[in-house]
Amino acid sequence: MLCFKSNDNDVYFNLALDEYLLKSDLPTPILFLWKNHNTVIVGKNQNTYEEVNQKLANDDHVKVARRASGGGAVYQDDGNLCFSIILDKNSAMAKNYHTILQPIIDVLAKLGLNAQFAGKNDIEIDGKKISGNAQFQYKERLLHHGTFLFNVDLSKMGKYLNVDQSKIISKGIKSIPARVTNIKPLLEQDLSIDDFMDFIMQEFIEQGTVVQAIPDNIITAAHKLAEEKYRTWEWIYGKNPSFVFQNKIRFEGKGTLDVRMNVENSIIKEIKFFGDFLGWEGTEQLEAALVNCKYQIEDINKILEHFDLTKIFGDKFTRSEILETIVHK
Ligand SMILES: Nc1ncnc2c1ncn2[C@@H]1O[C@H](COP(=O)(O)OC(=O)CCCC[C@@H]2CCSS2)[C@@H](O)[C@H]1O
């Protein structure tokens, strides 16, 4: 087995590297270990607006990323370790999640941890999730990747993954919320996340795994893939499933502003304002101007700036109130 470790903690680059190792002609099995700075990574078929609290993530510079495998959304910081195992999909180990995760569970046992495979794709200790896993394939190869909650700030996890889903209707895959725990406080020894990573590597080395530097050509190709795919708006937001957004806000002393929208690939395709008052002029022009606008605050704001909103809404609603109604939090 070959083992690689990423020296970078940029999630977009690491996801590209992950994909590139899968698609490379390096011999399988491959073990790849990596860590990311603060990020929420959604599954391939998820809707970022339903899974990530965009406002809080933006404010705190938490990167939003989409991976190539299915499943739910996870939060990661420097206290999370990712592992990927790349296999020939016809090999005995690639049979199912159990067969792939058993060597990992064995390593955890050597640290005194009674970890078990649970649910569809989790590893748990005492009924609490410590690892979420997902897979994708390319030709004859299978990539299985998972997380380890080693010492993640769990209050932040709740903060960024907690989203009001009542305003959106979509066919996006929903995450499965779990009770979680970190590994570090369960250990008898005082280990850092890097010690934990070294321990895993050492265990695999004893079974014949060879640690290598990632070949330069793969690093170069991964940088390119990160720029062309993982870091782009088209991948992160453009791949969102279509959704309907409905929101109604009552502004004290002013009235109710009600908006309904159809959004496809995160582009507004239809939008209608409703309200409990008369005399709106130019609403249709505003609605028409918002069609084909990206569903993101900066772009919507730019369009609103071009309109004399008092002509449409009188002194009822300000630009920021209109934005608040349109943009999902
Ligand atoms: N980092 C991390 N690790 C484990 N579990 C997590 C994590 N963050 C959140 N969660 C919990 O899992 C659920 C979502 O569970 P769900 O089962 O819906 O999704 C997953 O587990 C996906 C795992 C993807 C692993 C990839 C490996 C390389 S990059 S990401 C979430 O609501 C939280 O309760």
Q: What this model shows, in words?
A:
The chain has an eight-stranded mixed β-sheet, sandwiched between helices. A four-stranded antiparallel β-sheet has the order 11-13-14-15. Strand 1 (2-5), helix 1 (11-23) and strand 2 (30-34) form a beta-alpha-beta unit. The protein is elongated and about 75 Å long. Helix 1 crosses helix 7 (216-230). It has twelve helices and 15 strands. It has 329 residues and is of the alpha+beta class. Helix content is 33%, strand content 27%. It has helices at 11-23, 48-51, 54-59, 97-110, 154-161, 193-206, 216-230, 233-236, 283-290, 297-305, 309-313, 319-326; strands at 2-5, 30-34, 39-42, 63-66, 74-76, 80-88, 115-118, 122-125, 128-138, 141-149, 168-170, 210-211, 243-251, 255-264, 267-275. It folds into two domains: 2-236, BirA Bifunctional Protein, domain 2, CATH 3.30.930; 243-326, Enolase-like, domain 1 (2-Layer Sandwich), CATH 3.30.390.50. It binds ligand LAQ. Residues 41, 67, 71-72, 74-76, 80, 82, 121, 129, 131-134, 145-147, 149, 157, 161, 175-178, 180 line the site of ligand LAQ.
